[in-house]
């Protein structure tokens, strides 16, 4: 069915199955995210898996292309992917794809523990996390002990920012649409500056983010809700982040800052303030998302694991899929796994970004 056709009973059962899985309550795996994608992606679907007596034993959100190629729901922006299944579902990956008329299903952030598709993963990645389940004070103490220079430098920059630019103010859940537009502008400029594809140049991504920002869920409610956090100096935004939260997990998604204030590291200040506010709101985990970055290494307390790959049904279309996708995937993997070569690639991307801005 289309995501918008899920009824209250489906939503309740989806939540039950997620709770039974024991996995972190990642908002990308909640029904609200799938329904939001369904409003902007016409190929979005959800397979409802029924067991004995028509009892629902699972849900499989996906997007379907014109020739039956499937992708994870929200592929390209979703940071946690996979079906939501009871242990008694009794399906194989091939049977599920066949029932959905899919020749393949591609994923780039498959959740750890997704046994149905895990055998088809070709690579595994760290997704750094900040554990604030014991409260912010405990996290700060661990940060002081494990990264004392980083913590001292960041807090000193915050004090200097206040002295030199004005009062520093933080809002965890900002509802002003102008702040979101500012963040999206900063992020687009960052993509161009670093030679990367501007995600917000895709209309469906821009609309999806704006809709999720507008769909405000109470802190006590389960599910998926957009959270815009902003660091202000003298009422001027200098850093911001838009992410998704469930009751217990905040998935970090789109952080950016005003480059005029780069010397103060406003993005790092923002992340520390976010961790403190999230802990106060009952959130126990910040998922920083897959991808290497110095700031993630400095802030993290551990890692989750995510997988990349594709499940492909046997047949002639499987060969076409591999011819179209595997060379590119292997080339990216080759570069990623060689730090020196990855450094050359990053410098080349930065040069492309500088040329774009001329």
From TrEMBL:
Gene3D superfamilies assigned: 3.40.630.30
Sequence ranges assigned to domain BioF2-like acetyltransferase in this UniProt record: 151-296
Protein name in UniProt: Cellulose biosynthesis protein CelD
């Amino acid at each position: 069915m289309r995501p918008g056709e899920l009824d209250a009973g489906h939503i309740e059962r989806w939540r039950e199955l997620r709770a039974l899985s024991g996995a972190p309550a990642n908002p990308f795996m909640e029904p609200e995210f799938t329904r939001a994608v369904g409003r902007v992606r016409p190929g979005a679907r959800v397979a409802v898996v029924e067991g004995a007596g028509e009892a629902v034993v699972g849900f499989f959100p996906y997007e379907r292309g014109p020739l039956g190629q499937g992708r994870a729901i929200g592929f390209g922006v979703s940071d946690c992917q996979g079906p939501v299944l009871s242990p008694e579902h009794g399906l194989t990956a091939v049977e599920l794809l066949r029932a959905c008329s899919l020749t393949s299903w591609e994923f780039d952030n498959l959740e750890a523990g997704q046994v149905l598709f895990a055998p088809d993963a070709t690579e595994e990645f760290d997704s750094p996390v900040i554990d604030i389940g014991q409260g912010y004070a405990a996290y700060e103490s661990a940060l002081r002990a494990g990264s004392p220079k980083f913590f001292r430098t960041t807090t000193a920059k915050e004090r200097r920012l206040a002295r030199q630019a004005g009062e520093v103010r933080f809002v965890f859940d900002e509802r002003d649409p102008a702040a979101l537009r500012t963040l999206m502008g900063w992020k687009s400029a960052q993509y161009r500056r670093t030679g990367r594809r501007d995600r917000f140049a895709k209309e469906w991504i821009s609309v999806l983010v704006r809709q999720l920002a507008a769909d405000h869920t109470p802190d006590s409610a389960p599910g998926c809700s957009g959270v815009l956090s902003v660091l202000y100096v003298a009422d001027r935004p200098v850093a911001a982040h838009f992410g998704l939260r469930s009751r217990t997990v905040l998935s970090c998604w789109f952080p950016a800052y005003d480059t005029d204030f780069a010397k103060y590291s406003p993005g790092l200040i923002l992340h520390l303030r976010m961790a403190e506010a999230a802990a106060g709101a009952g959130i126990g985990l910040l998922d920083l998302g897959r991808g290497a970055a110095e700031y993630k290494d400095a802030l993290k307390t551990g890692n989750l694991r995510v997988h990349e790959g594709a499940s492909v049904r046997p047949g002639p279309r499987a060969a076409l899929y591999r011819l179209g996708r595997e060379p590119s995937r292997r080339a990216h993997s080759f570069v990623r796994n060689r730090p020196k070569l990855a450094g050359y690639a990053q410098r080349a991307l930065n040069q492309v970004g500088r040329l774009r801005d001329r």
